[in-house]
């Protein structure tokens, strides 16, 4: 499927080659959203190629292109970073402790398969009791059965005793005495981690000091029921080696002192408070104490790397109308191409048509009628409700904006369908296809975006994005002659370039 002739037919590649030959890759002098309504033959290649039989179930594939000339270079799945020095903290220094249960393991292990890297990631799944022939699967973490907790009292009226054994995963992992460990990362069996981003974040902190890194809940009431300073366990949290060592010494006594707490994360929090170590809050851990469609959060992610997603069984699939596990797998395709840039928002405008375009790289693109200020676009739309079924802004621990009922203000949403690395152009190319039916019952005198059926986004991988102070990328709408297509370039903002008109 990567024969040279087919490569040349690839529309994503084709477009970019043409542009680079004609030197039209730089920002056009006037930002014209150029759409010619003339059908051109290569338009149809896109549909044929991207939905041909080699992509069953619309599973995206990363096409590996051979360079025609000289050396046959294959694209690395992970874009190498240049300063992988021996001493820098990386994934190999991280030990995961996944809190799981024998009753849900059969199903939830499918989420773990989406992010676990056999022979690369270290750690264990901790179960309450053994499950049948579980150690056979080499694509999953090895299984451990938690130590007996019957000597501990559990006095919480709502929760379950599992909280005790799950909170002890940190100590039990520490006691295994594994070599060269710098961080212990806890998560649930329905948590998906974005490993490269997580390793990058942890590499900024000294594991020889005491660090407890995580994030509270999206739900204000959940943070009141527990603590704003608690790392919620499903979103995941990291404990430095030095702190895990200190925790291990006191944890069992601490558990005896706190029998009436609810969950495992609250028990960790209680012990951290005894040790006097506050939570280092790092955005990007997503507990997702919400129901419904999380797209509002992913379309306006904080300017921070995405680290985890939790509650994948409770929220709607990450991509609509898709199997939940397959949807997560789809997200892993752009993640492998440019993990640092995954889900990062950039905002730009089509001046001639008065549209606002918001790219959430590797996930979705939105087009809004009208020019909406960046300060509005950077606030998540409430496409979801809170854990307590609240749908107003006061239920959340962050700013949200309502989803408008006015058809003119409804965005056109395009979800990722495919992503690949284009060697000739040295850029990622990702494609987004319109999701919902057109909402054209709008009487505004603004061009109707429904003519745009697909969006192509080009972006250079930027593994050092988070080595710099946080800043959004900029996007630019490029001229194209492809019918029904918008072409967008995403990258570091140039001198003086802003998201504004
Ligand atoms: C992991 O490594 C072992 C031995 O080093 C090898 O036998 C096994 O096939 C590897 N598994 C995967 C999934 O790469
Ligand atoms: C596990 O055991 C069951 C029956 O006990 C069997 O049907 C299944 O194929 C086994 N799974 C693996 C991965 O060996
Ligand atoms: C591709 O771009 C990277 C920087 O983004 C650069 O370091 C590398 O040399 C480029 N490779 C080629 C073949 O142009």
Can you walk me through this structure?
With 501 residues, the protein is of the alpha/beta class. Among the domains are: 91-281, Spore Coat Polysaccharide Biosynthesis Protein SpsA, Chain A; 338-491, Distorted Sandwich (Cation-dependent Mannose-6-phosphate Receptor, Chain A). The chain has 13 helices and 19 strands. It has helices spanning 4-9, 11-21, 43-50, 105-115, 162-167, 169-175, 195-202, 220-225, 241-257, 264-275, 295-299, 324-337, 374-377; strands at residues 94-99, 122-127, 143-145, 183-188, 192-193, 212-214, 237-240, 280-281, 290-292, 308-309, 345-350, 355-360, 364-369, 384-386, 412-422, 427-434, 454-459, 474-478, 485-491. An eight-stranded mixed β-sheet has the order 11-12-13-15-16-17-19-18, covered by helices on one side. A seven-stranded mixed β-sheet has the order 3-2-1-4-7-6-8. The chain has a two-stranded antiparallel ribbon with strand order 5-10. Strand 18 and strand 19 form a beta hairpin. The chain is globular, with a radius of gyration of 24 Å. The chain starts with a helix and ends in a 10-residue tail after the last strand. Bound molecules: 2-acetamido-2-deoxy-beta-D-glucopyranose (3 copies). One 2-acetamido-2-deoxy-beta-D-glucopyranose binds next to loops.
Number of helices: 13
Annotated CATH topology of the domain at 91-281? Spore Coat Polysaccharide Biosynthesis Protein SpsA, Chain A
Report mean pLDDT, rounded to a whole number: 86
Number of strands: 19
**CATH class annotation of the domain at 91-281:** Alpha Beta
Low-confidence region ranges: 1-11, 13-31, 35-84
For the CA atoms, what is the radius of gyration? 24 Å
Strand pairing plus helix content: what structural class? alpha/beta
CATH architecture of the domain at 91-281: Alpha-Beta Complex
Q: In percent terms, what proportion of residues is strand?
A: 15-25%
The shape is globular
- Helix percent reads 10-25%
The neighbouring-strand order within the major sheet is 11-12-13-15-16-17-19-18
Bound molecules: 2-acetamido-2-deoxy-beta-D-glucopyranose
Q: How many angstroms does the end-to-end distance come to?
A: 43 Å
What's the main sheet like?
Answer: 8 strands, mixed
GO molecular function, one term: acetylglucosaminyltransferase activity
Keywords: Membrane, Transmembrane, Transmembrane helix
InterPro entries: DUF604 (IPR006740)
Protein name: Transferring glycosyl group transferase
